[in-house]
Amino acid sequence: MSHIPAVEIITIGDELLYGQVIDTNSAWMGQELGKIGLRIRQISSVSDKAEEIVRALDEARQRAQVVLMTGGLGPTKDDLTKHVLARYFGSELELYEPSLRDVEAIFARFNRPMLEVNRQQAYLPKACTPLRNTVGTAPGMWFDDGGVVFVSMPGVPFEMKHLMTTHVLPKLQEYFRVPPIEHAVLQTIGQGESFLAEQIADWEAQLPANMKLAYLPYLGGVRLRLTATDDGQPNLRERLEAQLPPLRALIGPYLFAEGEVPLEAALGAMLKERGLTMGTAESCTGGAIAHKLTGVAGSSAYFLGSIVAYANDVKVKQLGVQPTTLETHGAVSEETVRQMAEGARRHLGVDVAVATSGIAGPGGGSEEKPVGTFWLAYADAHQTVARKITFNRGRQLNIEFITTAALNLVRQHLPTVS
Amino acid sequence: MSHIPAVEIITIGDELLYGQVIDTNSAWMGQELGKIGLRIRQISSVSDKAEEIVRALDEARQRAQVVLMTGGLGPTKDDLTKHVLARYFGSELELYEPSLRDVEAIFARFNRPMLEVNRQQAYLPKACTPLRNTVGTAPGMWFDDGGVVFVSMPGVPFEMKHLMTTHVLPKLQEYFRVPPIEHAVLQTIGQGESFLAEQIADWEAQLPANMKLAYLPYLGGVRLRLTATDDGQPNLRERLEAQLPPLRALIGPYLFAEGEVPLEAALGAMLKERGLTMGTAESCTGGAIAHKLTGVAGSSAYFLGSIVAYANDVKVKQLGVQPTTLETHGAVSEETVRQMAEGARRHLGVDVAVATSGIAGPGGGSEEKPVGTFWLAYADAHQTVARKITFNRGRQLNIEFITTAALNLVRQHLPTVS
C-alpha cells in the first residue's frame, strides 16, 4: 500500500476549551506532517469527558486514516484518555515493563519518590503498540484498527515532540509507504512577499511540475520553502538542490540563512565566524535587541553588552551623546542615533554596535515626528550608517519590527574581517 | 427563554492546518465566553473549502446552540466563508450601506485607493444581521437558524476581538438571557498553587455555594479568579466583593494586582505613584527585564535605562564592579550582583535598581555553579538586598523566570516614598 493518508488531530483537555492554554501542539504537528507530505484535514479540541472523546474518535475515523491525539495521559483522575481508548478498542490494560523502567528512570533522574499513580502510567491497553517515552512518564500508544491508525500522546509539548520525532513520523512513513518528499528553506528579510515573487517569477515559472515554492511571510521578512514531491525518478534531493543556486543569486541581498535558523542566530554565527564582538545602544527598543541576541545559547562569545538609554540623561552620560545634539535635533534623529552607535562602540569596547531611537507609541508623537518614526544606526571601525523607518502597527509590533530591522542592519554592513 | 447554550468554535483556514499560524483566537474566545458564563463544547479547525465548512457547520449544530466562526472573510478568491454561508442559509448577497461606509472610512484613514474587491466585502447575505466592523474591512454576520445562532467573524485577532466585545458577547447575553455572572481576578506571584491553596483553605471552604475559586498558574505565580454565578438573589457583584477583603489579607505578600494587570505594569504604576525612577543591570537576563518594563506604554516616566553587562569588562567599566570581586567570587555571586545593582543606581542615576547574574545554560555550568544558578540584587538609597535562585527548565524559561523574579524583588522592597 502506498498512498497519502488524511490526518486528523484531536487535542483533549478542558484547559483548551476554557482558553487557559493556547494549543501550540497542533501547529507544530501540522508543520512536521507537512514536511513528510501529509496534510491535516481537521483539528478538534474536546473536553476530557469519555463521551466527548469517543464521539470525536467516531467522527474522525470517518474522515481520516490517521488520528493523532494529544492530552489526557497524566497520572490524575482527570486524565481519562488511556481508559477511554482501552474500552474503545475492547482491550484490557497490562503492565508494559519497558515503560515502567522509563518511568522509574525519570523519577531517579529528578531524585523524587515514585508514586503508585505514576506506576499505573506504565499499564497500557493490550491492543496498542506502546511508544516509549524517555522524557516523561506517559508512554504513547499506537493502535491499528482496520487500517485506521490512532495514536495517543501526552499534551506536554516537549514530550509530544519527542514521541512524534522518535516514533510517530517514521512509523507513519513506513506504514503508509508515504512517497518521498524533500524541502529546502531559504530565510529572507527586508522585502515583502509580492516584491520577492516579482524578482523570482521567471525562476519559479521554470520549476519542474513536481516542485513548488511556498511563501511564508512573518513580521519583517518571508521564509521561502521549496518542496519537491515524488515523480518516480531517483535523486529527488539532488534535483531539488540543483534548483537553489539561481534562486540564491536572485534573492542574495535578502537571504540570511538556510534552514530553520532565526535571524539573531544567523547574525551570531557571522559574528563568531568573523571574530567580531557586538553591543547595542537602545532607546525605543528598550533592551529588545539585546534580549533577542542573548536568547541564543553561546552568545556570550560575541555579545558583550548594551546600554539601554531610555532617558536623555543616560544617552549623554553612558553613551557620550552631545547635549547640543539632543537640544537641536531631538532624541529621535539621525544625529542622535549616530552618536549612540558610536558611543556604544567606545563605552562597551565592541567592534560593531547598533542603536535605535524612535516613538513606539501610543503616546509621545508630534506632528513633525509622529508615532512610528524610528531612526537606526550601525557603527563599526570604518563607518557609521543611519536609516530611518516609518512603521506603526501598535507598540508591541513596532518594537518587534524595529528589533528585527536593527539586527538586519548589522547583518547588511558587517565587515568580513575584524 | 433563559438557559446556558453550548458554544462551538470553527476556525477556517488552511494556514491553521499547515501550522503556519497558531490559533490564538480560540483561547481568547474561550476566556471571554467563560467570563459571561458560557462554555465551549468543541473547537474545530477546517480547511477553506466549501464542503469542509458545510460539513463542520452541520456537525456543530448537532452539538451546540451557538456556532462562532472565524476566518475566510478577506477580499481574495480563497476567502469563501461568506459565499458558503449565503448558500447554506439559502440567502442572496446584497449591499449593506453602513458597512460600505465603514470600508470607505478604513481606506480613507490609511490614504489608500479602495478596490472593487474591498467594495464587495460590504455585500452580505440578506438572511444575516450584519455586525459592523470599524477596525477592518470585513463585517461580521449573525444568523439565527431555528434557534441556533451562527456568527461569522474575520480571523485577524484584533478585528475578531473588536466584533466579539462590541457585538457578539452582548448579543449572546441578551438573546439567551444568560444569567448574571461576576468575576474578580487577584494576581499573585512567588508561591505555587498548592501553597496558596493551603493558605486559603478555610476561606475557600466558607464560600457560598454559588461562588467558586479557580487557580490559574503561570510561570512564577498564580492568578486567582473568584466567580459568582446567579443564585436568584440581588447584588451579586456586591456579595462577590464582600468575600475579597479576607482573601486579600491571607495572600497579602504575594498579591501584586487585581484585574488583568501584568507584573511589569503593576510595578510601573507603583514607581509612578511613588515618584521613583528605576534602572537595571543585567547579565544573564540580557536585557529581558528592560524589555518587559519598556513594553508598558508610558514607561519612560519612571524607567531611565539599563546596562546589559554580559561581559565582565562591561561589569567593571560601566557598573563599577571591582575586578577583585570578579576574581575572588566570580560573576555569578552575591558580591557581584550587589555591586552591579549599586553601580546601576550610580551610573544610571536612578532611585532603585535590580541586577541579575547567573548561568542560563545550556553551557557554562560547573560543579560548584551548575546551570540554573542565579543571583539577583535590589538596591535603593537605604539598602541592598540579594537573593539566590535555583531554577533550570531550559534557557528560554530560565531567562523568563528570572526576569519575573527580578521584577518581584523590586516590588517587594520598593520604598513607599522616594
Task: Provide structural commentary.
The structure is a homodimer of 418-residue chains. The first copy, chain A, has three domains: 6-175, MoaB/Mog-like domain (Molybdenum Cofactor Biosythetic Enzyme, Chain A), CATH 3.40.980; 182-258, Alpha-Beta Plaits (2-Layer Sandwich), CATH 3.30.70; 263-413, Maf protein (Alpha-Beta Complex). In chain A, 40% of the residues lie in helices and 25% in strands. The first copy, chain A, has 17 helices and 17 strands. Chain A has helices spanning 14-17, 25-35, 50-63, 81-88, 97-110, 116-120, 157-175, 193-199, 201-205, 236-242, 244-250, 263-274, 288-294, 312-319, 323-329, 334-348, 395-413, and strands spanning 6-12, 39-46, 66-70, 93-95, 123-125, 129-131, 140-145, 148-153, 181-189, 211-218, 221-229, 255-258, 278-282, 303-309, 352-358, 373-379, 384-390. In chain A, the strands form four sheets. Chain A has a six-stranded mixed sheet, sandwiched between helices. Chain A has a five-stranded mixed sheet with strand order 14-13-15-16-17, with helices on both faces. Chain A is globular and about 80 Å long. Chain A starts with 5 loop residues before the first strand and ends in a 5-residue tail after the last helix. The model of chain A has no long low-confidence stretch (mean pLDDT 95). At the A-B interface, helix 2, strand 2, helix 3, strand 13 and helix 13 of A face helix 2, strand 2, helix 3, strand 13 and helix 13 of B.
**Domain module tally of chain A:** 3
Largest interface, chains and sizes = A-B, 70 and 70 residues
> Strand order across the biggest sheet of chain A?
2-1-3-8-7-6
Mean pLDDT of chain A: 95
Radius of gyration of chain A: 27 Å
Corresponding CATH superfamily of the largest domain in chain A: MoaB/Mog-like domain
CATH architecture of the largest domain in chain A: 3-Layer(aba) Sandwich
Tell me the distance between the termini of chain A.
58 Å
What fraction of residues of chain A sit in β-strands? 15-25%
Main beta-sheet strand count, sense and barrel state of chain A: 6 strands, mixed
Q: How many β strands of chain A by DSSP?
A: 17
Unreliable segments of 5+ consecutive residues of chain A: none
**CATH topology tier name of the largest domain in chain A:** Molybdenum Cofactor Biosythetic Enzyme, Chain A
Shape of chain A: globular
- Helical residue percent band of chain A: 40-55%
How would you describe the oligomerization state of the chains in this entry?
Answer: homodimer
